[in-house]
Amino acid sequence: MSIRTYREALNQAMREEMRRDETIVLMGEEVGFYQGAYKVSKGMLEEFGPMRVLDTPITELGFTGLGVGAAMVGLRPIVEMMTFNFSMLALDQIVDSAAKMLYMSGGQFPVPLVIRGPGGAGHQLAAQHSQALEAWFCHVPGLKVVMPSTAADAKGLLKTSIRDNNPVIFIESEVLYGTRGEVPEGEYLIPLGIADIKRRGKDVTLIAHSRMISVALDAAADLEREGIEVEVIDPRTLRPLDSETLVQSVKKTNRAVIVEEGWPFCGVGAQIVDILQSRAFDYLDAPILRVTGADVPTPYAKNLEHLAFPDKQHVMDAVNKVLYRQPASADAP
Amino acid sequence: MAVKILMPKGSDTMTEGKVLKWLKKEGDQISTGEAVVEIETDKVNMEVEAMGSGMLRKILVQAGKVVPVGELLALIAKPDEDISSLVKSEGSAGAQPPAGSTVPAPAPAAAAPLRPPTNASPVGTDVAPVPHAGPAHAALKGGATPSAQEPANGGRILASPLARRMAQEMGLDLNRIAGSGPAGRIVRQDVERAALLAVGGRAARVPEAGSAGAHPPAPPPALPRRPALVPTGPEFYDEPLSSMRKVIATRLVQSKAPVPHFYLTIEVDMGRAKELRESAKALNPDLGLSYNDIILKACAAALELHPQVNASFQGEAIRYYRRIHLGVAVAVEDGGLITPVIRNCEGKSLQDISREAKDLIARARSRKLNPDEYTGATFSISNLGMMGIEEFSAVINPPEGAILAVGAVAEKPVVVKGQVEVGLRCRMTLSCDHRVVDGATGAKFLQTLKQILENPVYLAF
């Protein structure tokens, strides 16, 4: 166990896997010579050489297609999106080829492909470069969607994703790259589809993923001072989703708040609400509430950007609401 | 225009009701809000009030008859108004009462917090705010509107799915629960509070119930003379369950299976018990009279006065024991617990009980009891005082109806006539099987026990 950044944990996961299995290759814009736009692939070109760490042109559709084809014929490619905003250009390959190939080929062509890179809101990156698009991928049968919130989860989940025989959309958080945490050395695998209870509580279930976990934990810490015990659950894998853990928690707490950075309409939280209301209806003591990004293109202006994404106060307000409780702070509306 | 008086739907579960008594007769002048007829629902008796003024023209259902909810019971109209068509069409009237036609006025006996029937004016109905508002409730008040002030919700009771399920499981009527959530939604804590009140209210129908916090407790009644307990006949007698007792039993089991416990705690001044120990020691140092011995004897004496607590739930009957067999929970040396039984305590002196307890406890610790020495208790005592436990709640040893948990006898500051003094106190908690022992019954037993322990000379009588 050692303290590493989220970025280093991802790097370690890829290196360990590439040392173990020479069919694994990494490709993407600036992953090699430049050491990665966010330095996640630092040192990998030096270690594995240009045959396994490939700089690609700025052609997301093209190199994602290359990755799908390579995966079909026996390699296990990791395709890096410089950010997931650019994955939109590759959607045809992701949705229509990667996700469906196994099905359409009658099981002949599995696509063991990882598409990874940062997603979510940045700092003043504005409408086109600051958005959470995970709901798009969650919608597609045939894709797995993984979003780690800690350095340890980043390592354990990426190693498992690389070994998975299905296409995995692995969305990191640009804002979390520099955060540190304890990371187990060596063989550390976290199965996909298993949620992690980041904090135990009995009064309300707070479900969040990726960067929103830190927002949720901050809110939980503040609420603890008011005597509210919040259970914070990180699904870690949005698809397959660990419904059972979520349902069991809500059966215990009788109330849930779901936090996500993305837009509200048809968001990840909407799906979780559906699962909870159908499987825990008789246990709910309050409507399930969602805290989401605002239903607008992300503003560039700092003050407006701040208003567009969930923060601690939004989460606390929602928790108080499902608890039928007046917030303790005097300045509350 | 004629005003109909219909059989009201007094609760969610009510499908029919009985006309008990007409309070007015045909030809009487009736004004709005006046009680016209008394009916019996599946839960309570209540009066039905007129929703309009006029003359009671026609009574269609005579006293004693049971009719479905929504049935036309009577018509109020002007003296010369033609009501023949209404009287005729009555037979085909729907089962649901039209909105606003009647206001069921619940009988005062209804103890649970009452939600006003939807569409009804709160005037004249028992819609007092939920009592026992704790801090959590107070915190809610600012944002939550009590349902009493809410407009109708189209006849539907607003309740969370959890609250609905809990109410159903506990057999509580949502109509009678005030909601504290938005728009008067009934939520979990409302059901829990109603359940507590339903249990407490049923048990403690004594006038002082619920006002204990506001007034100093009434002085305890003078200790009655100890009855001459001469056991005759069989070991016990079975009293068949009343129907109310059956309902209480069923509901409480639903809420906490298999034995629905509740707990009562009392603090006892042990000053005189200490003196008793000391004088006993002076008389006979070998006896080694302990607080536990005194408490055992006092319990036996209190049980003689409160045989309802020396009882056991038997499914279709409550068994009242004519003997007092006291179980004493003893921790076994290498782990575990056993409850040796001191039999027939009703006839035993303090000295006898002390000797027997010592012998049994010593042999229990070393697991040298015969089976007949640890079975058949009618009431048990668990004492963790020697471990420094101030107070605790013990789990009932079925099929007994109650168990007394005794905490440490300890010095502590007490207020006596406005002055802080050093007092010797012991806290005792009675766990009761609510199917057998009601709140007031258990409380009276504890009151007597306290009296005896505070005046142990009683034991010498």
Which descriptors would you attach to this protein?
heterodimer, A: 333 residues, alpha/beta, Rossmann fold, seven-stranded mixed beta sheet, globular, B: alpha+beta, OB fold (Dihydrolipoamide Acetyltransferase, E2P), Dihydrolipoamide Transferase, Chloramphenicol Acetyltransferase, 3 domains, six-stranded mixed beta sheet, 24% helix
What does this structure look like?
The complex is a heterodimer of chains A (333) and B (461). In chain A, the strands form three sheets. Chain A has a seven-stranded mixed β-sheet with strand order 3-2-4-5-7-6-12, sandwiched between helices. A five-stranded mixed β-sheet of chain A has the order 9-11-10-13-14, sandwiched between helices. Chain A has a two-stranded antiparallel sheet with strand order 1-8. In chain A, helix 3 runs parallel beside helix 4 (91-98), helix 9 packs across helix 13 (312-322) and helix 10 (243-253) packs across helix 11 (268-279). Chain A has 13 helices and 14 strands. Chain A folds into two domains: 2-183, Thiamin diphosphate (ThDP)-binding fold, Pyr/PP domains (Rossmann fold, 3-Layer(aba) Sandwich); 196-322, 3-Layer(aba) Sandwich (Rossmann fold). Chain A has helices spanning 6-20, 44-48, 60-72, 91-98, 101-104, 126-129, 134-138, 151-163, 212-225, 243-253, 268-279, 302-308, 312-322, and strands at residues 2-5, 24-28, 53-55, 76-80, 114-119, 144-146, 168-173, 180-183, 196-199, 204-208, 230-234, 237-239, 256-259, 289-291. With 333 residues, chain A is of the alpha/beta class. Helix content of chain A is 37%, strand content 18%. Chain B is 24% helix and 24% strand. In chain B, strand 4 and strand 5 form a beta hairpin. The longest helix of chain B has 16 residues, at 188-203. Chain B has 461 residues and is α+β, with helices and mostly antiparallel strands. Chain B has three domains: 3-106, Beta Barrel (OB fold (Dihydrolipoamide Acetyltransferase, E2P)), CATH 2.40.50.100; 135-203, Dihydrolipoamide Transferase; 260-460, Chloramphenicol acetyltransferase-like domain (Chloramphenicol Acetyltransferase). The interface between A and B is medium-sized, with 10 and 16 residues.
